[in-house]
Each structure stands twice: as C-alpha cells, then as structure tokens.
Amino acid sequence: MTIPRMEIDLAKIRRNTRRVVVLAAAAGIGVAGVTKGACGLPEVARAMLEGGAMMIADSRLENLLRLKEAGLPGPLLLLRLPGLSQVREAVELADISLNSEPAVIGALGREARRQGKTHGIILMVDVGDLREGLWPDQVLPAVDAISDLPGIELVGIGTNLACYGGVKPSRENMELLLSVREKVESLIGRPLRVVSGGNSANLSLLISGEMPPGINQLRIGEAILLGRDPLEGTPLPQMHQDTFRLLAEVIEIKEKPSRPIGETGRDAFGRIPRFEDRGIRRRAILALGRQDLAVEGLKPLEDGMEVLGASSDHLLVELSHSAKPLRVGDEVAFLLDYPALLGAMNSPYVAKALLGQGGPGESRP
Ligand SMILES: *Cc1c(COP(=O)(O)O)cnc(C)c1O
Fold first, then answer.
1. Ligand 1 near 203 CB (within 6 A)
2. C-alpha 328 – ligand 1 centre gap (Å)
3. Which of 12, 36, 168, 183 does the annotation list as catalytic?
4. Within the chain, what is the greatest distance between any pair of CA atoms?
5. For residue range 117-162, what is the model confidence (pLDDT) as tens digits?
C-alpha cells in the first residue's frame, strides 16, 4: 500500500460521534458534525451521520461541493462567513450559513431568490473570543435590517469560542448568548429554531453539567475526529483517540552523534537549532516532512521512539535501547494532534486509506 498514508478508522469515528450525540442529547442539544479536519471526506461525513449527527458542517465551499457530489444527504451548514464573492456558491451548496455582515446576508437573500431557494442564516454573536460575530448590543439592529428580507430565513443565533482568543465556554458566556436570543425573539415575535453554542471546546461544559438549558446545537469536529478535549488536550472519556494513524516508511537507519559536526548556522527553516550532546545515538529517517504536516504534532505509537526534528521531506527519529528493532522499509505509525491532522489531510503526498467500512479502501484527496 502507498506510503506515507493516513489510515482513517470510520468505525471509530462513528462511535465517537455516537458518544458525543448521546451526551449532547441528554442536554437537549443536537450535533452538527464538522468535517473540515478531514477536508470534507464524504466517508467521514457519512460515519458522522451514521453516528447520529443531525447535519454536516464545514468551513470550505470546496468541501461542501465534495460532500454534495458524493450524494450526502443535507442539510449542509457553512461554518466560515461567506464572502461577498462566494454568495452564489454558498447558496448553491449550503442550506444554512453562519453570518455576521448584513450586506452579505442581503446578497445571500437576492441570490437565493434567483435560485428559487430560501437560505438559512445563523447570526453569529461575539461573546468574547473576538473572532467572528456581532457585538451583543449590535444584534437587534442587524436583526431588524435582515428579518424581513426575502430569500432568507433567520433560523437562529450562534457563537464560537476558544478559537482566536482561547476564551473558554462558560455558563456566563452561554447565558449571554441566551439573553440575546430572548431579545431577538421578542423583536421578531417568534421563537428561533437554533441556538448554536459553539464547538468541541463546549463539551467540557456539557460533561460537567454546566451547560444552561436553551443551547440546542453544537458544531463538533475535533472531539469526534481525535477524541480529545481541545482546551486541555486530554482524552475524552469513552472515546477513541486513534481514529487517524499516520504511517511513514523508514528510509535510513544509522548510528550518529547527537551533535552536528562543524560550524552551524540556520537550519532549512531559518531557525538556529540547539543540540545537547547525548553521545552516539541510533536514528532513523522517515519519508515524511514539513511539506506534509506540522511535525511537532506527531506522537510515535512505538515505545522508545522520539521525534528529533524534520526538514521538508525528512523526519528524524531517535531510537532508544528499548525500541523495537527497526529496519529500512519498515512502516512506523504515529498519532496526530489537530494541526498535524489538518496538514496531513491536505497533503497530496499522503494517501488516505479508509478502515472500518466493511473493507479497507484507498482514496487520494
Ligand atoms: C471549525 C469550527 C467548528 C468546529 O470546531 P472543533 O473544535 O473542530 O469542534 C465549529 N464552528 C466553527 C465556526 C468552526 O469554524
């Protein structure tokens, strides 16, 4: 099989989704499964739907197109605010989008009418993370400006946390969102269908029982894909952390000193490397590098193996005495963090192999 390759265990993604869905359902919350970490891979989306996700969400129109072409059932939710230049595709590909700019919402409405559709809007409210969203006191004027526009339906409000500012979801910021909901509902004289409280970072609030009633949607990617709480990086209980495994091939094994010989300057990435003298060490080179992913996010599955560093195409690992003997041609497996996962899924050099769908298949991105 092609190497390097990412093995994606769909059965584990299905089970992780189920676990999040059950947890969320107990608090009256539906889960939108977020596929952007897997580049909108249709099989991953399908595993999320089979696990009970109510819809699929992605930040990229290219990924929504991929899902639509694969015949994935809707509705589809566009996560990144559509740009004015993307209005036609946004209406074609997404049923609902997150929005904060009345000018874009107006354009979405005109385009939806042209396409004979109604486009759903979730109005984003910034409750402190300082990424997208209207400031809470600007929401009512915005709702006033858009609520009667033809071609759009204001389906709800939402917020996003723990992304730019790293602000933790809390009872307080969720209650702030719910207070905005009340004001919007009394302005438009009808209930909003959706209060979308955030992403994987909101799960700890859910687990601790602190999520105030009224939040009825979460948009979950990382927790399903990697089984981890992104705020603390800790494994989530009863979830799989090895849904994605990256395999790379050993192309050299040598004993070498741990400090380079000769005058040193910058490395291939402009950094000045520092080395500790640990004597002669056994090292392997793997055919994988920074062209593929952020190597800092790799965790070897083998004991006694440590990532030393990498250039564009070479990953250096040190093998301790306790490490299993390795030979040229062997495959070495790694787990990945979210940035490394994003890189590897986006790398055309990393093949994608699907497991857990009744027989392994392989697909190139
Ligand atoms: C990426 C994204 C999510 C999902 O985030 P995870 O941490 O992967 O759960 C949710 N909402 C928005 C707006 C996003 O951009």
1. no
2. 40
3. 36
4. 75
5. 999 999 999 999 999 999 999 999 999 999 999 999 999 999 999 9
